[in-house]
Amino acid sequence: MNNQLDRKDTNPLVGIIMGSTSDWETMEHASNILTSLGVPHETRVVSAHRTPDLLFEYASSAEQRGLEVIIAGAGGAAHLPGMTASKTVLPVLGVPVESKVLKGLDSLLSIAQMPGGIPVGTLAIGKAGAINAALLAAAILGTKHAPIREALRKFRVEQTDRVLAQPDPSVSAVATPFKDPQKGKRR
Ligand code: RP5
Fold first, then answer.
1. From atom 9 of ligand 1, which residue's Cα is the shortest distance away?
2. Which atom of ligand 1 is nearest to the CA of 21?
3. Which of 74, 99, 143, 182 could form a cystine bridge with 19, CB 3.0-4.6 A?
């Protein structure tokens, strides 16, 4: 298995699971955010359809293994987050991966439209959803783990500072290497 997909910190608090190795391109953004916030986590391919027994084992043992939040990314008939939620009382955050045919709308609806009684916190389609799933996981953990709460606060302050430091997009555009002088001009 790809090492990046089998990452395991000591005593992970967050489990990032995904239906396929092809989801890593999206889900690595969640992993990167958690790393930047110092949140120990593990990453793993667990498929609701191709490895259903592994999914049941992963979800039902997650709490006992010390996980406190699960982030589950899947695309298409995206049953992974919902089935995971059905086997644990830990909070499950679902990331709809952008599918080729329906651009992730199928994933979004599959993950969001859970029956009453088994909630999945559903994020946006794709990269933004993966990033926000990690930030939301950190916020959930932050209610109990002060260092994670403070890391999240620092992230938000730095993000605001970055935006305020670059108020004029045309200035940064000049600094960026220009590839097509005609691009964006009226012809
Ligand atoms: C889902 O099917 C996965 O989450 C993935 O997004 C999608 C396609 O999987 P692959 O055919 O690329 O393995 O289960």
1. 20
2. 13
3. 74
